[in-house]
Design goal:
Elements (H helix, E strand, L loop, with lengths): L3 E5 L2 E4 L1 H27 L3 H26 L13 H5 L21 H4 L6 E10 L5 H11 L3 E9 L4 E10 L4 H10 L3 E7 L8 H14 L4 H9 L3 E5 L18 E3 L2 E5 L5 E5 L7 H17 L7 E5 L5 E7 L4 H10 L2 H8 L6 H9 L4 E8 L4 E10 L2 E8 L8 H15 L4 E7 L3 H8 L5 E6 L2 E7 L14 E6 L1
Antiparallel strand pairs: 1-2, 3-5, 3-6, 4-5, 7-10, 8-9, 9-10, 11-12, 11-19, 12-13, 13-14, 14-15, 16-18, 17-18
Helix pairs in contact: 1-2, 7-8, 7-9, 8-9, 10-12
Length: 486
């Protein structure tokens, strides 16, 4: 017999001492067996000794078998307890899964929820309602820890019937939204809502609110964008007290606003109504208080527009200035209307030319969007570009005086407005014009972005998707920036 115990320099090494010991043990066993055979064969109690020996051997074999079955599958002492998550979740019941119906791109309902990335971590934003009693939050955290989910931040929104807990989670890439909501439901969470998050959500709530307040303080046009970032995916509409085309305005709301489940209405700074709607997730009193504070800040600061301007040189050598405009430019804008032809005004406003002046006060107000003006060296406005917040969509509109058309002014305004929309986080912009307005069509095509066209009864709607890979910076402008002055 031989035993290979190790390899040295790539060759097996045999122990000859062990072979000698095994041979000696074999000879000893033969001698003992011969002595036992003589004792049993010639002694008076030989058969009895033989039967007792057989019984002892059978009992020993049975005990060994029982011991091996009991302890053969015990985990090793060095086991850390790490097991594949699928093994631990196979037997979980789905009866406890509780998730609200949500927006079409919410992870628990969309294809994005089923998409997993093994080996990578994923950020999730989750809300769930728990009972307002000791240990409820601890049970929730324990359930998340069991799935190896890391809690990065937590906000609480107290309610009369419980507490809404808002989490920012970092979870393993192969863990789906449905598995997270199932575990949360079993731990006592109700009305669970979850969606994918990104790196911007890593900023803590006080810092984010202060940043939004700063943006609002610098520019009145930032209020709808700040509310959208504060409250997540929602539809925001600003309705003036007196509509631009005349008629009755919206129903007034109390000074402190009104909260109705998934809809909040706030008193607008200029006297109208700001309506915020989020049908897939009810607003909490805490969110309502934050939104109201942001609107009150905007109202106290009054109308304000950042003062900056760019001096541009047209191809023929004339200098023009592009800057932000507001209601202070109302008179100059009306004078430009008077110099525009009926055809130009008709293409811009798609209605009776006599009503064009009624819309200017609304269009120039920073409460409803951003306006860029183009003025000559003498200070006369010859072009206007509007970026208007339309609920959860964004509209762009251009008007260039007849004598200044076909010089690249409209394309320059459009490029800057779309750049503002990208900075504001808009997913798309659309322009409404007439199918015969070849200048607007050419300007939209010059953006180099994917376009969608819809035409009905002579009205053309062109939508540009802003999530394309081609940046606007690669598009060459027809005019050059000569200098920038504060």
């Amino acid at each position: 017999m031989s035993d290979v115990t190790r390899a040295k320099h790539g060759r097996p090494v045999h122990h000859w001492r062990r072979d000698v010991i095994e041979l000696a043990a074999l000879f000893t066993a033969v001698a003992v067996a011969d002595a036992v055979a003589n004792l049993i064969g010639h002694g008076p109690d030989g058969p009895t000794v033989l039967l007792v020996s057989a019984a002892v051997l059978v009992a020993t074999a049975g005990f060994h078998t029982w011991w091996a079955r009991r302890h053969g599958h015990a985990p090793p002492t060095g086991d850390t307890g790490a097991r594949p998550r699928s093994a631990g979740r196979t037997g979980q019941s789905d009866a406890g899964l509780s998730s609200q119906s949500s927006h079409s791109d919410q992870p628990e309902l969309s294809q994005d929820a089923a998409t997993t990335v093994p080996g990578e971590s994923v950020l999730w934003r989750m809300r769930t309602t728990v009972k307002d009693e000791p240990g409820s939050l601890a049970a929730l955290c324990t359930a998340l820890a069991g799935l190896r989910v890391d809690i990065l931040s937590l906000q609480t929104h107290p309610l009369a019937e419980g507490t809404v807990d808002e989490f920012l989670l970092r979870a393993p890439g192969d863990l789906t939204a449905a598995e997270i909501t199932r575990a949360v439901s079993v731990a006592g969470g109700a009305g669970t809502w979850i969606e994918r998050a990104d790196a911007h959500d890593l900023v803590d709530a006080p810092t984010r609110v202060l940043g939004l307040a700063t943006r609002t303080a610098l520019d009145a046009a930032e209020l709808p964008l700040a509310l959208r970032q504060l409250l997540g995916r929602c539809t925001i509409r600003s309705l003036p007290a007196v509509p631009a085309g005349g008629g009755r305005g919206p129903e007034p709301v109390p000074m402190e606003g009104a909260l109705e489940d998934t809809v909040m209405r706030l008193r607008a700074p200029e006297g109208g109504v700001i309506t915020v709607e989020r049908p897939y997730l009810p607003f909490t009193p805490t969110e309502f208080a934050r939104a109201r504070a942001l609107v009150e800040l905007d109202a106290r600061l009054g109308l304000r527009v950042p003062r900056s301007e760019d001096v541009l040189t047209l191809p023929e050598g004339n200098d023009i200035t592009v800057r932000r405009a507001d209601t202070g430019d109302l008179r100059a804008a009306r004078e430009m209307h008077e110099r525009c032809s009926t055809r130009t005004l008709g293409m811009r406003y798609h209605g009776p030319v006599g009503d064009a002046d009624r819309y200017l006060n609304h269009l120039l107000s920073p409460r409803f969007g951003r306006t860029l003006s183009v003025q000559t060296a003498s200070g006369r406005i010859v072009g206007l570009g509007h970026l208007l917040w339309d609920g959860d969509e964004t509209e762009v509109a251009l008007l260039v005086e007849d004598a200044w058309q076909r010089r690249g002014i409209g394309s320059e305004l459009l490029r800057r407005l779309v750049g503002m929309a990208i900075e504001a986080g808009c997913e798309s912009v659309y322009a409404v014009t007439q199918s015969s307005n070849t200048g607007m069509v050419a300007a939209m095509r010059g953006l180099g972005l994917p376009l969608d066209y819809q035409i009905e009864e002579g009205t053309l709607v062109i939508t540009a998707r802003l999530d394309a890979d081609a940046p606007l910076g690669e598009q060459e402008s027809a005019v050059g920036v000569r200098t920038e002055a504060p």
